[in-house]
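Quick one, probably user error.
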């Protein structure tokens, strides 16, 4: 499973990319607004660090989506145009797929939406699991259903598990065979941690000090 960082903060991308585990970045308008930096410069800086950076169109009509997406794609070959799951979005995804522009369909909350985006030619789809949990549903069940459908169909579209909130989401996504998981910075930082690793290392180092003192 590929691991993406869900952020618009270049420093965070630098930090996690240095671990050698980062396959890409997803941004969205809310994350970009939170950082308040120039969008093009942010995307360009990230493209130098990772091979796949999702940049979301804010246009809602086909023609404008295509214009905006083409501009993003012209910035760098690592850009993936993120398109919302609407009927205008489906038309744009189809158009981009015919022009060899990679897309990530965002705001996917159901299996029919996932199937339509795949048929339109999306490179990846982003089902949001945390937001389903937030309204009392089990978001991970959507991933299980989508992966089941993918098993029986020849879709090339990658399933990118989005809106993750804790390490268990990442483990569950991996167990279900999802292709990609995008992870917020705070959650990513929790992944390498284990109290027994810390305690074990402390003991190894203190024992080593005892013999090196002599
Ligand atoms: C990523 O592509 C999504 O925009 C993001 O994971 C949404 O996460 P949120 O539900 O925590 O805002």
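Nope, works fine. Designed sequence:
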């Amino acid at each position: 499973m590929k691991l993406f960082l869900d952020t618009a903060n270049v420093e965070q991308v630098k930090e996690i990319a240095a671990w050698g585990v980062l396959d890409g970045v997803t941004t969205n308008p809310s994350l970009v607004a939170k950082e308040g930096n120039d969008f093009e410069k942010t995307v360009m800086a990230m493209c130098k660090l990772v091979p796949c950076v999702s940049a979301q169109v804010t246009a809602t009509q086909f023609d404008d989506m295509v214009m905006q997406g083409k501009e993003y794609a012209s910035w760098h070959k690592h850009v993936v145009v993120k398109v919302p799951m609407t009927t205008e979005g489906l038309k744009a995804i189809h158009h981009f797929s015919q022009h060899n522009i990679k897309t990530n369909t965002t705001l996917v909350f159901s299996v029919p939406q996932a199937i339509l985006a795949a048929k339109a030619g999306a490179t990846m789809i982003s089902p949001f699991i945390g937001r389903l949990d937030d309204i009392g549903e089990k978001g991970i069940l959507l991933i299980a259903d989508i992966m089941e459908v993918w098993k029986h169909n020849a879709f090339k579209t990658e399933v990118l598990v989005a809106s993750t909130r804790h390490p268990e989401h990442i483990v569950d996504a991996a167990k279900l065979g999802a292709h990609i998981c995008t992870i917020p910075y705070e959650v990513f930082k929790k992944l390498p941690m284990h109290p027994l690793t810390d305690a074990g290392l402390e003991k190894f180092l203190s024992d080593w000090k005892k013999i090196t003192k002599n």
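The beta strands are 2-6, 24-26, 53-56, 79-84, 103-108, 124-127, 158-161, 180-184.
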